[in-house]
Amino acid sequence: MSTLTYVYADQTAVLGPLSTYAEPHAYDLCEQHGQRLSAPRGWEVLRLARDTRDRGPSDDDLLALADAVREAARPLPPRAPEPSVEGSRETGRRGHLRVLTSE
What we know:
Blueprint: E1 2-7, E2 12-17, E3 26-29, H1 31-35, E4 44-47, H2 59-73, E5 88-94, E6 97-102
Parallel strand pairs: 2-4
Antiparallel strand pairs: 1-2, 1-3, 5-6
Region (Disordered): 72-103
Pfam family, one: DUF3499
Protein name: DUF3499 domain-containing protein
């Protein structure tokens, strides 16, 4: 994936690494379309080389993972008693569904 931007004043199309934020005049392209890109006559296409080395997880990735683990380990708040249906009792539960039987 790559991001295409235009510099109209310089008549240049720039194809670089995938952008991390949205910009009004930037277009994300798949690999196939990025390789086949052509510009209008008289324009220059700059293809910025991507760093293909595997750098492993970033600090942001590790912090997000730690936050997710903390959230999953946090105890659930106590549940409020659920209203009963008159003349029945709960005999089973699966997720948010309850099995009620008549008494």
